[in-house]
C-alpha cells in the first residue's frame, strides 16, 4: 500500500535547519495505520538537500554549515553564477549531501534514533521555500 504527498517547507535562508516536526505534521495522514513501512523524502530543488543528523545541539547544525562551506567554498572560480555567487556552489553542495532520504516507520511513527532529526540543508543565501515529495510504502 502506498501514500504520497507533496508539501512546501517554510522559507529559510542558508544553513542547516531541523525540520522533523514540520515534516511529521505534513505526513501525519500517511503514517496512520502503518505498522511497518518506509518514508521516502525527495526535495525537488538543486540548491538545497535533505539529511538526517543530530537533533539536539544547535551547534551541530552550525558546524555542518561551516564544514560544507570549507569543503565547497564560494570563493572558487565558479562559471555558473546566473542567480548570484552562491549558484553553482549551492548545486555542488546539494549533490554532496543528497536530494533524498529514507526513514523506517514503526507503529505509525518515524523510527529515528534518540538524537536523530531531519535536516533541510539550505545552500542559498536568500530564504527559499522548498517542495518535498513524501512517499510512504507499507
From TrEMBL:
Cross-referenced Pfam families: YjbQ
Transmembrane segments: none
InterPro entries in the cross-refs: UPF0047_YjbQ-like, YjbQ-like_sf
Domain of life: Eukaryota
Family: Belongs to the UPF0047 family.
PANTHER family hit by this protein: UNCHARACTERIZED PROTEIN YJBQ-RELATED, UPF0047 PROTEIN C4A8.02C
Name by which UniProt lists this protein: Secondary thiamine-phosphate synthase enzyme
Organism phylogeny: Eukaryota, Fungi, Dikarya, Basidiomycota, Agaricomycotina
Amino acid at each position: 500500500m502506498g501514500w504520497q504527498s507533496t508539501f512546501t517547507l517554510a522559507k529559510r535562508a542558508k544553513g542547516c535547519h531541523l525540520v522533523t516536526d514540520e515534516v511529521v505534521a505534513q505526513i501525519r495522514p500517511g503514517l496512520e495505520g502503518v505498522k511497518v513501512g518506509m518514508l521516502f523524502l525527495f526535495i525537488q530543488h538543486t540548491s538545497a538537500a535533505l539529511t538526517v543528523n543530530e537533533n539536539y545541539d544547535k551547534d551541530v547544525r552550525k558546524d555542518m554549515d561551516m564544514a560544507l562551506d570549507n569543503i565547497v567554498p564560494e570563493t572558487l572560480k565558479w562559471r555558473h553564477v546566473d542567480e548570484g555567487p552562491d549558484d553553482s556552489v549551492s548545486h555542488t553542495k546539494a549533490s554532496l549531501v543528497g536530494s533524498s532520504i529514507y526513514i523506517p516507520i514503526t507503529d505509525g511513527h518515524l523510527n529515528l534514533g534518540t538524537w536523530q532529526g531531519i535536516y533541510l540543508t539550505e545552500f542559498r543565501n536568500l530564504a527559499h521555500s522548498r517542495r518535498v515529495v513524501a512517499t510512504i510504502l507499507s
